Amino acid sequence: MKFTDFNLKETIQAAVTEAGFTEPSPVQKDAIPLVLEGHDIIAQAQTGTGKTAAFGLPMMSMMKADGSVEGLVIVPTRELAMQVSDELFRFGKLSGLKTATVYGGTAYKQQIDRIKQASIVVATPGRLQDLLMSGRIKINPQWVVLDEADEMLDMGFLDEIKNIFTFLPQERQTLMFSATMPNAIRKLAEQILKTPKTVAITKSESTNSKITQLYYVVQDKERDDALVRLIDYKNPNKCIIFCRMKKEVDRLVAHMTAQGFKVSGLHGDMEQKQREVTIRAFKQGGIDIFIATDVAARGLDVNDVTHVFNYHIPFDSESYVHRIGRTGRGGKSGEAITLVSPNELRTIKRIEKDVGAKLITQVIPTRIEVQNNRADALIKKIAETRVTESAINLVKTLQHDLDIVTIAHLLASLVQEEDFVKGKDNIGLGLEEVELLIERAMQNRGGGGGRNRGGYRGGNRNRNSSGRNNRNRNGGGRDSRNGGRGSNRG
Ligand code: ADP
Ligand code: MG
User: CA–CA separation, 199 vs 182, rounded Å?
Assistant: First the structure.
């Protein structure tokens, strides 16, 4: 199934294409057609499953863009309000649909001005109720979304929500999303939804304990660098990199090839024959790295895959389990490595709960650490190498002009130069920073007051903070920070 199957309005479809989405996530597959048909829905779907597009795309596809507020999205926290708003803005910008973000702790005036120009308002319950009750704003949205409803109830927003609905028109389409369906949610649903259709995305089995599950927190734009660095460091025998989009597969194939890796892409557009040829090459070792979408990798059975990388965290836990199960086969051990942005930490926590395993967070190795690793490997290799006749002659010749230590230095430099580690020294977030973000993402996230968005965006990353010292390898001694040669990879 493709996005184009939904028959979304042209400008919306164009924005989806621009965003690179090709295959809808499970909740999108189920919800989008129902919303387009005009049904109220109650959807059980967890964080990280693509809910924003599930309600945003069909709703926006039906909007008139007449300058009035046509859609209202209520979310539990200020962070979510900003995230949802950003995503909706992206989808709506070609259709002339503006969004306004409304939450507590900031001045009213600017928010009210923005609401006056917006087609969609994304709001936390407290501030929204405040604006409605004081008469500062009047809106008549035809679409109303309750996102992460269970969380809003957990945070004690039930009264606010009920009150908000007294200000909303009776003639409306209401969409309710919730990770869990406790009684309080069902009761609320009875009050605000009209003959709703139900969407439920089910959970999965648990994971193989022979697979070590790691995750690394990086900013979105660092994903490529992080991937290359981790592959340099882990030195996998064979690995599979999972992407969400075909476009991403193609781009990564080009990127990794340019970095000198033996890679091949695998996605749904490839013909069966070509697919088989590629898979055979992977099995036989002609290709070390497979870059694939979920669909393409279904049923893929290759032994000796030591590592699975999730370039993006998958939508559902089922897919996560399926992906990482490509390693650790036949009783061998394997590693599953997931790259996540700070926004996706909640998804990690949800997957941990679903699959019943703890994912371990680590810091991406520095360039120096990888370099040290390679030096260790080289030392080992040198110790195991047998001296040849021609090498003895070569050294004899060199000794005419150079002393033996200089010769050794030159030869070692020559060997090392071949695989000098490139790229930035530090990639991704440090441990302390990640711990802080997890804590913030997990605590009852305070109804939108006071917390600073900057932390989530990771603007200020002092990599020499103590977080760095928690690494299991202390590169301090050798870390000269002016490695000189290679810094042109990023
Ligand atoms: P949720 O609200 O369920 O937590 P989001 O709507 O925030 O999830 O989506 C999570 C991430 O997945 C976002 O970065 C979003 O851009 C991306 N995404 C959503 N749908 C798709 C899709 N069909 N293909 C690729 N990426 C998607
Ligand atoms: Mg969401």
Answer: 15
249 touches 265 (CB < 8 A): yes
Q: Which domains, ranges and CATH numbers included, belong to the chain?
A: 3-205 (3.40.50.300), 207-367+423-488 (3.40.50.300)
Task: Give 5-39 pLDDT, tens digit per residue.
Answer: 999 999 999 999 999 888 898 899 999 999 999 99
CA distance 220 to 183: 38
21 lines ligand 1 (CB under 6 A): yes
Q: Which of 165-169, 316-320, 366-370, 420-424 has the highest mean pLDDT?
A: 165-169
Beta strand 305-310 with 173-178 is unpaired
Sheet holding 197-200, edge to edge: 99-102, 120-123, 71-74, 143-146, 173-178, 41-44, 197-200
Distance 315 CA to ligand 1 centre (A): 7
Block residue for tokens 């039930």:
158
43 Cα–ligand 2 center, Å: 12
Q: Give 52 Cα–ligand 1 centroid separation in angstroms.
A: 7
Neighbours of ion ligand 2 (CB under 5 A): 51
Q: Of all atoms in ligand 1, which is nearest to the CA of residue 52?
A: 6
Give me the DSSP letters along 359-403.
PEE-PPPPHHHHHHHHHHHHHHHHHHPPP-HHHHHHHHHHTTTS-
Mean pLDDT to the nearest integer, 401-407: 94
Reduced to 3 states (helix: H, G, I; strand: E, B; else coil), residue 176 is: strand
- The C-alpha angle with vertex 41 and arms to 35 and 42, in degrees rounded to 5, equals 145
Q: What is the DSSP letter of 450?
A: S
In ligand 1, the atom with minimum distance to the C-alpha of 27 is 3
CA of 15 to the centre of ligand 1 (A): 14
Give the Cα separation of 95 and 218 in Å (integer). Answer: 32
Please name the residue whose Cα sits nearest to atom 25 of ligand 1: 21
Give the residue, by CA position, lying nearest to ligand 1 atom 12.
Answer: 50
Residue that has been written with the tokens 């859609």 in this structure: 71
Cβ of residue 85 lying under 6 Å from some atom of ligand 1: no
95 lines ligand 1 (CB under 6 A): no
Binding site membership of 264 for ligand 1 (Cβ less than 6 Å): no
Taking the C-alpha atoms of residue 148 and residue 126, their distance in angstroms, rounded to an integer, is: 15
Residue 415 Cα to ligand 2 middle (Å): 50
Q: Is 19 exposed, middle or buried (0-12, 13-18, 19+ CB in 10 A)?
A: middle
Are the beta carbons of 324 and 211 closer than 8 angstroms?
yes
- SS3 assignment, position 308: strand
Taking the C-alpha atoms of residue 120 and residue 73, their distance in angstroms, rounded to an integer, is 7
341 CB less than 6 Å from ligand 1? Answer: no
